[in-house]
Amino acid sequence: MRSMSTAENPQSTPRQRTAAMPFIMLTVLIDMVSIGLIIPVLAPLVGTFTGSQTDQAFWYGMVSLAFGVANFFGSPVLGAASDHFGRRPVLLLGFTGLALSFFVTGLATAVWMLIAVRLVSGALQANAAVAQAYVADISAPSERAKRFGMLGATFGMGFVLGPVMGGLLGHISLHLPFFVAGGLAIVNAIYGVFVLPESLPKERRVPIDWRKANPLASLRRLGETEGIGTLVAVIGLSSLAQFILHTTWVLYTTFKFGWGPKENGWSLFAIGVMAVLVQGGLIRVAVKRMAPQRIAVIGLVSSSICYLLWGLATEGWMMYAIIVLDIFGMMVSTTLQTVVSTAVDEHSQGRTLGSVASLNSLTAVAAPVIGSFLLQLTAHYPHGDWRIGAPFYLCAALQVLATVLAIQHFRRHPSPLKPTEAEAAPT
């Protein structure tokens, strides 16, 4: 059943408004635009404090690692806190952490400042997991695939607008996108205070169990949850591949094609457009005809091939062509989230999705170390050399292994929902 707040008067206070998809989608859109703004310029900013491409790859990996470590330990705590205090206050805390991160990063004069502020912001930021829990609060199980798809489309829209804006602003000044992103984070906090309603009613809130908020314990429980099991490994491998892609994309295209912030901004814009098309429309067609498990397997196969092709690309235009080909690969995260969400009860959505976020954060810890190491080994090769694609070859191998494990898991745990059920429920 869809949870409702106590009043539906449009003039009521934020806590009295009925929680609904448009509220959280606007929140996520602003959040992702602000995050997307800095992606094309963070690696070049790190480069201003280093003397070579090899050093740039190393220190960019350390900056990314700092956020991942802090987020790994913070995500399950914030997820449990959202089950107890509600989604809204935890989201507000996340917006505050982002604003702090962006402004201090824009003012940074040394690499250690970037690392320090990423530690703080990583510990305070679990917006994606809490937003997913918000959607789960207001959606029946049969609606979640479609609504997670809508949320994914909103993430994609943020990446349509954010990176291209960041690339264009970064072409003017590498610091400018960080101040604009900080301003947007503040706007989101103001929106949260005065407009965003709470999605979790008090009767469904549970006390915080600090033992369960332990990130390692939360991962163990996630693996023991009926219907999830070895799917944890699938999520972990797929997430590791995605984070290696995310943390190496800008440096990879810089080293291989000589791209700058503007070119990287446009490439990320293309990824965002495809994400919107897939999550906002194509995934609805897919879930109407196929179970989420089948879509996930097809997507894993598709992304395995695309990672390999990205690594082998010799011209910049090829990156765009492969982005268009990876339609099913962009459905993997949403379909896996749907399977996990339907495997737990309504009282554990925040903690469970927080555990998934913690798993993602754990892979975000490993990804920059692995990705930057591989880029350091290949940074001296000339533009266009196939060996610079080493991080993407590893991603392809990880996705192949995830595919094998997913097939084995889904044979043991067939879909509880028929394909058409995701479209049958009212929105």
Fold blueprint:
Layout lengths: L20 H27 L5 H33 L1 H21 L3 H14 L2 H11 L6 H29 L3 H19 L20 H10 L6 H27 L3 H29 L2 H21 L3 H10 L6 H11 L6 H30 L11 H23 L8 H4 L3
Helix pairs in contact: 1-2, 1-5, 1-6, 1-7, 1-10, 2-3, 2-4, 2-14, 3-4, 3-5, 3-7, 5-6, 5-14, 6-10, 6-13, 8-14, 9-14, 9-15, 10-12, 11-12, 11-13, 11-15
Order of helices and strands: HHHHHHHHHHHHHHHH
- Mean pLDDT across the residues is 80
> Could you estimate the helical fraction of the residues in percent?
over 70%
Number of separate helices:
16
The structure class reads mainly alpha
Radius of gyration, CA atoms, in whole angstroms: 20 Å
- From the N-terminal CA to the C-terminal CA, the straight-line distance is 12 Å
Please outline the major beta sheet. Answer: none
Number of strands: 0
- Tell the overall outline: globular
Strand content: under 5%
- Runs with pLDDT <50, length 5+? 1-15, 420-427
In a few lines, what is going on in this structure?
With 427 residues, this protein is mostly helical.
Features:
75% helix; 427 residues; single chain
Tell me about this structure.
- Helix 6 (144-172) packs across helix 13 (332-342).
- The chain is built from 16 helices and no strands.
- Helix content is 75%, strand content 0%.
